[in-house]
Amino acid sequence: MDRTTQLTARRTARTGPAPAADVYEPAEPAEPAEPTGPAGSLRARAAGVLESNWTGTSTVPSRGLYPHQWSWDSAFIAIGLRRLSPSRAQTELETLLAAQWGDGRIPHIVFNPSVPLDAYFPSPDFWRSSAAGRAAGAPRTVQTSGIVQPPVHALAAWLVHRADPGLSRARGFLARVYPKLAAWHRYLLHRRDLGGGGLASVVHPWEQGMDNSPCWDAPLSRVAPAPARSFRRADLAHGAAGDRPTDLDYQRYVRLAAEYRDRSYGDEASGGFAVEDPAFNALLIASEHALARIARELGATGTARRTRAERLTAVLVDRLWDPAEGMFLCRDVYGAGRSGRLLPERSVSGLVPLLLPDLPRSVTRALVRTACGPRFGLGGPARLVPSYDLTGASFDRHRYWRGPAWFNTAWLLERGLRRHGERARADALRADFLRTAAASGFAEYVDPYTGAARGAAGFGWTAALTLDLLHHDGSDHSTHHSSDRGGNRG
Predict the structure, then answer these.
(1) Residues 6+ apart with CB under 8 A from 7
(2) Which Pfam families does this one have (predicted)?
(3) What average pLDDT does range 97-108 have in this prediction?
(4) What is the pLDDT of residues 121-172, one digit of tens each?
């Protein structure tokens, strides 16, 4: 146990036990037992990855391919860091939130000025955040991108607080981050409701996090590619071309990002790409539940946020649920003559809403059937859960988000299964996660059939979420189906 963990454990002992668990996090002992044997070795290896990726104020996803701070990576990394050092987990989130824009958005990249411009593309000189984003309140002293990533942050903040409530209260952690997180959610719920139905839209595939998913193929086909010679990809220096997006896809990504930048990052007039994604909105809802818990911790009732989360869950089902497919689908806001339409592609994003506590029972049963059926193979031929339908025409077991299995989505589905009483399936997924993470060297993603490592090695959120799942065997997760109205998990 490191010195920080020892100190925070003693603070927790002085301040008494943690408050009653919420719908997102079970009650835990103040100082959990250290894993021993193979589990202890895996814990040490995972901790070593996070230590090597630590910059002093934040954690990079990987030293080579991703040398800056990424938004949803840092949220997942903080969730794992709380198992090693709650104070460092708080710092991870605080560093990210320090780069928040005046309009509330949390940028998807916070650039490290000591990293050479040619180490990553698009680099700060492409985004020009402090100039192009001035009207939207971009910070002047730090360079960022202008797009966003999935809103896992409030959920992460609540879990980090729960790891050591005494330390969190002593530092005023929640009191400082709550206004920033509330502003972030206001931005998404108001500025990004481009479809007018109450859900947030993403305006670039990179915002959803599953960058190269086949779900984006149809909306992206409307985007004119940027000239091939107008930029140089840096990602191909760190991975096989067959694992990465194609040049044509990248040309469209660059065109879309440049047009958004040239509109001063304004959301009022979209560039023709706007998609309501189930995972993005499910994480927003989960974080609304977490904000309700944070509000209660700070002395408010949290009732309005809890009610909003329940309302958004109903909207998610109404707009994105497809009972015939047994899963949620993306909505192309500007498709079908700008009247909007559901996209037929089936990705892991459509299973992530299983995380939510207030889904109708018929929906949760159908999601479990779909996850365990031939399309996603959970408990069958697939390791973890593939990022895309195994039977789909666009399935590619190696190419980025078009088939490979990712550890963050496995972590989300493990929690969703456990939440809804699928303990045996959750236990099996947890075991597969830990075996695959260990065997792959904490890979960025893996072949969904063999578990062979793909992408970057020593990946931050893979190591972090390994630590989280090693911490307990899952037996302390509640299976309450209610939200935190008298309920007990969040």
Answers:
(1) none
(2) MGH1-like_GH (PF22422)
(3) 98
(4) 899 999 999 999 999 999 999 999 999 999 999 999 999 999 999 999 999 9
Q: Which residues of 156-165 are buried (b: 16+ CB within 10 A; e: fewer)?
A: bbbbbbbbbb
Kindly state the tokens that stand for 99: 């780069």
Q: pLDDT at position 489, please?
A: 25
What's the pLDDT at 230? Answer: 78
> Which residue(s) pair with 386 in the sheet?
405
CB 481 within 8 A of CB 489: no
pLDDT band at 11 (very low <50, low <70, confident <90, very high): very low
Distance CA 370, CA 383 (A): 15
Active-site amino acid positions: 211, 444
Q: Is the peptide bond before 122 cis (omega within 30 degrees of 0)?
A: yes
Strands 109-110, 445-446: pairing kind: unpaired
Q: Quote the pLDDT of residue 237.
A: 66
Pairing between β-strand 109-110 and β-strand 69-70 as defined by DSSP bridges: antiparallel
Please give the Cα distance from 261 to 129 (Å, whole number). 8
3-state SS, one letter per residue, for the chain: CCHHHHHHHHHHHHHCCCCCCCCCCCCCCCCCCCCCHHHHHHHHHHHHHHHHHECCCCECCECCCECCEEHHHHHHHHHHHCCCCHHHHHHHHHHHHCCCCCCCCCCCEECCCCCCHHHCCCCHHHHCHHHHCHHHCCCCCCCECCCCCCCCHHHHHHHHHHHCHHHHHHHCHHHHHHHHHHHHHHHHHHHCCCCCCCCCCECCHHHHCCCCCHHHHHHHCCCCCCCHHHCCCCHHHCCCHHHCCCHHHHHHHHHHHHHHHHCCCCCCCCCCCCEECHHHHHHHHHHHHHHHHHHHHCCCCCHHHHHHHHHHHHHHHHHHEECCCCEECCEECCHHHHCCEECCCCEHHHCHHHHCCCCCHHHHHHHHHHHHCCCCCCCCCCCCCECECCCCCCCCCCCCCCCCEEHHHHHHHHHHHHHCCCHHHHHHHHHHHHHHHHHHCCCCEECCCCCCEECCCCCHHHHHHHHHHHCCCCCCCCCCCCCCCCCCCC
C-alpha–C-alpha distance, residues 355 and 290, integer Å? 13
CB-based burial label for 206 (10 Å; 0-12, 13-18, 19+): buried
Split at pLDDT 50, 70, 90, the class of 272 is confident
Q: Which tokens is 425 given?
A: 């399936």
Q: Can you name the residues that pair with 70 across neighbouring β-strands?
A: 109
Residue 159, Cα to own-chain centre: how many angstroms? 14
Query: Shortest CA distance to 342 belongs to which of 430, 443, 215, 166?
Result: 215
Query: Do residues 197 and 281 lie in contact, with contact meaning Cβ atoms separated by under 8 Å?
Result: no
Residue 120 tokens read as: 């990553």
Q: Among candidates 209, 208, 204, which has minimal Cα distance to 267?
A: 204
